[in-house]
Amino acid sequence: MSVISIIDKLEQLVEIHQQLIQFSLEKTTIVKNGEVDKLQSHLVKERKLVQQLEKAEAAREKEVEKWFIDNGLSLDDTTITTMLQHLQDEGEQQALEASAVRLAEALINLKQQEQLNVALIQQSMQFVQLSIDLLSPSLANINYSNKTDMDKSSANRSLFDSKA
Fold first, then answer.
1. Mind listing the domains of the chain with CATH numbers?
2. Which of 1, 24, 59, 135 is deepest in the core (most CB within 10 A)?
3. Percent of the chain with pLDDT over 70
4. How far apart are CA 90 and CA 28, in angstroms?
5. Which residues, including other chains, have CB under 8 Å from residue 88's CB and lie 6 or more apart?
6. Looking at residue 133, what is its pLDDT?
7. 14 exposure class (CB count in 10 Å sphere: 0-12, 13-18, 19+)
8. What is the pLDDT of residues 91-101, one digit of tens each?
9. In which band, very low, low, confident or very high, does the pLDDT at 67 lie, cut at 50, 70 and 90?
10. Which residue stretches, if any, does this entry annotate as coiled coil (predicted)?
11. Out of 25-29, 37-41, 82-86, 141-145, which region has the weakest mean confidence (pLDDT)?
12. Residues contacting 1, CB < 8 A, separation 6+
């Protein structure tokens, strides 16, 4: 059996990962601009793409298992490296290796971009937390009251009267 179908599946995965990288770049811009509504709709579209990726990966796994069974190999080590070792055709070896390298590069790029997005979101959350902390100052910092007479229930009072 030829590995052409497996190479095709790998190329589909590369294409989907490239789309995810593009989505991730767009997400970076959205987060930088603070467009929360746009981020929500963007995440819905991204989730659909991830589902498409999961289906393509499952199809690739089936093709690889079929190739291993057809070639009388154990299913314990179904890796590209094992396939490359057992392929006779040098052209198929090179094509399979090139597809695997492109997929690995796409995965690395996507991971780096997503790490940047996570860092940006964490930074945004820290800014929000700082803003909240600034809006609800501690009464312990006020110098015009006697600490012994201070009511314990008012210790966490904020600037806004939530009982009104």
1. 4-135 (1.20.58.300)
2. 24
3. 82
4. 41
5. none
6. 79
7. buried
8. 999 999 999 99
9. very high
10. 36-66, 93-123
11. 141-145
12. 66, 67, 70, 71
State yes or no: pLDDT of 155 exceeds 60: no
DSSP state of 86: H
- What are 15's two structure tokens? 């294409």
* Nearest one of 147, 148, 63, 135 to 99, comparing CA atoms: 63
DSSP letter, residue 71: T
Residue type, 12: Q
If you ran DSSP here, which 8-state letter would residue 22 be given?
Answer: H
CA 154 to chain centre: 43
Q: How far apart are alpha carbons 49 and 127 in whole angstroms?
A: 30
Tokens in use for 52?
């498409």
Which tokens is 73 given? 């190999």
Q: Single out the residue of 129, 128, 132 nearest to residue 158, CA to CA.
A: 132
